Amino acid sequence: MYPGDAEFGFELLVCRWAETSWPPGSTRESAVVVSRQLGTKRRRWDTVVLECDPDGLAARRQFGERELDSDLLHVVRHAPAEWEWYRNALPHPGYPWRYVRAAVHRAADRGVVEKRRQGNRIEIRRIAPYPDWLRRIVAIENKPDLDASAARALAGQLEHDVEAALADEVWVATEATGSRIEPALLEDLPVDVGIVTLSFDADAGAVVPIENDSVGTVEWYPSEVTPPDASGDEERRRRRLELAERAYGRGWRSYHETMRPDCRHFELRRFGRALVPHCAANGRSQTAAECAGSCPEFEPEPPAWRSRGWPIEGGPGKGIKRLLRRRRERVRERETVRD
């Protein structure tokens, strides 16, 4: 079981499972960062797992907790060790230099590079080398009820993922049925895509083991779809770093940014090892689409709630945001000190 009757609740629990138990069926050798609803203009993935070098992930923290967008990455990755005019230091971006100049100012304001003015020129210097922190990207599509029609609709998207090879592995996560042969194995999915079945129980305080004391059962192992020439493909590396930066900055607990935690009915409920949103007005876990300003049950927090300093400064909505942010930061810190 999972909270609510939509894929959103299942998706949040898959993210928490991946955060604690990735990779399925084997020992973790990399640090893990999990995010959700990320991708490219053509394709958006439900869950994204970054397998990272622990030392590199720790070094990435020098550049702050916020993501570095494509323009900032261009500046930070190529910033020189010693002072140099930014036009000499950075490779030509393929667009006007005035946009690079604006990115240099933003980077300096963020403290991710240093800048100074020498005459009419702006010189830059790096604060530290940008680390090689990303090892692999794993894309997971979440379909709790993977019936034949859902599989047909999903097959084309998964084939695109395999052919594009932006991710190193592609998986489908579905709810376990307990059958001797899981129905997902009988559906027409690309052979390169892995299948993992999960079962959740809020009363157990964790993901319920399905068999062999495993938190998730791998029904079909994926193929590695990384191209043979990936190490020399700078364009692929750039796109993957941009995706990884978005995942690093947002995580999977950022659902509060598209929902309304400032509503008096918005709550967080514990479901196993995850905290998931709950609507007190409807008495159930809501979806991100339902929890919006257009919801007929929406009621702003009373002003008196927001003016009290203790125990939740700014009201419950602010407290929820701080709690989710602290949990995300705690996971980052744990991953960088993992043995």
TrEMBL record:
<dbReference type="InterPro" id="IPR043901">
    <property type="entry name" value="DUF5787"/>
</dbReference>
<dbReference type="Pfam" id="PF19100">
    <property type="entry name" value="DUF5787"/>
</dbReference>
<feature type="compositionally biased region" description="Basic residues">
    <location>
        <begin position="319"/>
        <end position="329"/>
    </location>
</feature>
<protein>
    <submittedName>
        <fullName>DUF5787 family protein</fullName>
    </submittedName>
</protein>
<feature type="region of interest" description="Disordered">
    <location>
        <begin position="299"/>
        <end position="339"/>
    </location>
</feature>
<feature type="compositionally biased region" description="Basic and acidic residues">
    <location>
        <begin position="330"/>
        <end position="339"/>
    </location>
</feature>
